[in-house]
Amino acid sequence: MTGAELLESFRSRWEGLGGQAFLAQEGVEGVRAACREAVRCLAPPPEAAPGSGMPLALLWDDPELEVLRLDEVLEAAGFRAFLWRAEAGEEEPGQAAARLRGIAARAALGVTGAAWAVAETGTLALYSGRGTGRLVSLLPPAHLAVLRRSRLVATVGEGFRMLAGEEARRGDLPSAVNLVSGPSMSADIEGELTTGVHGPARVAVVIGEW
Amino acid sequence: MSGKLPEAPAPWPVRRSRALLAPRLREAATRAARRLQGQKEAACAAYPQGEAMRRRAVEAKRRALRRLDALLAQLTERVEARGGHVVRARWPEDVARYVLEVARRRGARRIVKSKSMTTEEVELNAHLEAAGLEVRETDLGEYIVQLAGERPAHILVPAAHKSRADVRRLFAREAERTGETPPAGESPEELTAFARRRLRQEFLEAEIGITGGNFLVAETGTLVLITNEGNGRMVTSLPPVHIAVVGIEKVVATWEELADLIQQPPLSGVGQRLTSYVSLLSGPRRPDELDGPEEFHLILLDNGRSELLGTDFEDVLRCIRCGACLNVCPVFRAVGGGHAYGSVYSGPVGVVLTPLLAGLESAPELPESLCSMCHACGEACPMEIDLPGHILRLRRQEAARGLEPRGFATALALWARLWSTLAGFLLSARLGRLGQGLWRREGRLTGGPGPLSAWFVGRDMAPLAPESFHEWWRRRGGAR
């Protein structure tokens, strides 16, 4: 598959599963603009929920995302943004973990990167790590993932080979790799499809090059 | 010696009558099975590359079973190298004992679970609850079934037999118990919203998370879990301890093989290319991580599995619990789903696996009565398990060991003797025609004398024609 075919195939699968996809113009500014758009579509604007205070957003502290300054994008969209990391003064690791978990449980939106994505199945791969907590894409009702276009692969098998490369580089696998294909789904009540039973009900991906 | 499975909740004749007298169950099971089967056909037709993948997946499983011990040793070494714990459980009690030991050491009281057939197999919930622990099933269907105090009706759709009104009643009762706001209405959205709110609380408070496992990868010591709801991710991300209970047959050698296998359960079971979530878990959280379980325990369950290695039945260990055989089985539909089987494993694979794991004596009725030999399951199985062949083999074993109901063999021998001569055959037809008026209801034959009446439980047949073919032939002047 060519790059354009991978992109088209991924997008149609992902949207078919109930996710939203946003293609960014090249460069940092293009990705930031697409993220603004995605956030607007994913999470209801704060003024729609008066009295509930400022909505919270939780963001991976990922070197790949750093240059995008997504915390600023989120703040401009009316969120209080938090990064997944210990703050100065939180020497005890348990302290930071408990605080972040509390934020994740209350946040309206979680923002992550993605290590790779599979065109054939409409799947994002998320690696857990120091700055890339697993709760960010799990507890909030909406999840936005930002994906580099060059990380699109055709099959799950190719994705696993990228993971093996990562293992060779780091000397170990991530403790958790989560593959995400669309929103949380259940058909357990009379076979009717509902979303968001445990994980996010609304999911979006921004695909860009930066 | 084989393993153990939970005892059937009621003897076979009771289960049979219950199943056949419940048209609503039959409709629900038929609806669920048809829906899933239709989705599978559509998905496979649109995904031709899936077929080559499936064939490679069968080979991967076949290879793994041939060197199971070596793979389990490698898996154990890899998991332990990352600080995880691995134990082998020969019997169901071993699982409960280990989990209770972990709970005691951690001072844990609250446990959340994602759907797992192995823990059903060892009746883990009952053991833990008896020891005073609170166990919560978190798959939406399992949650409903747990609140109702019942057993799952289908391995993929545990609450297929519950209507939205049933679910609302159960949730309203649970809301009262916990002081929660009850569901606003009975639409699946409103009911799901209640479950999300309520179960979220339980996830956050739980001290231990228990899961099964769909696959294990030996080369890296990785546990693979697939779910659509995300409860598998919750259970393995929030509580400080994660315990996985996995059958020894779930291990494969490499990630390359896993790539071929991982799409098979959703493709064959529900017609999805991949489940919404796949978790690939390699040990507990690393020292620099801020979430994930601090402790990881892997319990490898045998319970009669290793005795199937090297036998005619070895291929049953390739089963990936996709549910494809249930969805095509006419008997599964007719008896209204899994309850009639009286086992945690229902449908064609349950008919085979239950007696193989727990001994033929424990469930002779399964191969004997819950199969019409139509062979649809054999065609549907993505792992190419010889289900119809195994059912026949089990029937032969039953006959050889005299496990059929009393008088069954004698009755068959008498019948064979009667019909082996033309005179006997004609005589039985004539007697039948004379006597059948007694058991005719609405144009169907619904009973018979003495032992024959047993056959008519749950069955009927067309009455014998007023004139037989032989008589008609003779009347028309036909030659012998």
Report on the architecture of this protein.
The complex is a heterodimer of chains A (210) and B (480). Chain A has 210 residues and is of the alpha/beta class. Chain A has a single domain, classed as 3-Layer(aba) Sandwich (Rossmann fold), CATH 3.40.50. Chain A is built from 6 helices and 12 strands. Chain A has helices at 3-16, 28-42, 63-66, 70-76, 93-106, 156-170, and strands at residues 20-23, 56-59, 80-83, 109-113, 116-118, 123-127, 142-148, 152-153, 176-180, 185-186, 194-195, 202-208. In chain A, the strands form 3 sheets. In chain A, strands 1-12-7-4-2-3 form a 6-stranded parallel beta sheet, with helices on both faces. In chain A, strands 8-5-6-9 form a 4-stranded mixed beta sheet. In chain A, strands 10-11 form a two-stranded antiparallel ribbon. In chain A, a hairpin with a 4-residue loop joins β5 and β6 (123-127). The longest helix of chain A has 15 residues, at 28-42. Chain A is globular and about 50 Å long. The two termini of chain A are 22 Å apart. The relative contact order of chain A is 0.21. Chain B is an alpha/beta fold and 480 residues long. Chain B folds into 4 domains: 1-62 and 322-404, no CATH class; 67-96 and 109-124 and 207-303, Rossmann fold, CATH 3.40.50.10420; 139-206, no CATH class; 410-475, no CATH class. Chain B contains 23 helices and 12 strands. Chain B has helices at residues 12-20, 23-45, 49-66, 68-81, 92-106, 117-121, 124-130, 140-148, 164-178, 188-205, 231-237, 255-261, 264-269, 324-328, 330-334, 347-358, 365-369, 376-380, 387-400, 408-419, 422-435, 452-455, 469-475, and strands spanning 85-89, 110-113, 134-137, 208-211, 215-217, 222-227, 241-247, 251-252, 277-281, 295-301, 440-441, 444-445. In chain B, strands 1-10-7-4-2-3 form a 6-stranded parallel beta sheet, with helices on both faces. In chain B, α9 runs parallel beside α10. Chain B is globular and about 95 Å long. The N and C termini of chain B lie far apart (58 Å). At the A-B interface, α5, α6, β9 and β10 of A face α2, α8, α10, α11 and α12 of B. β9 (176-180) of chain A pairs antiparallel with β9 (277-281) of chain B, so a sheet runs across the interface.
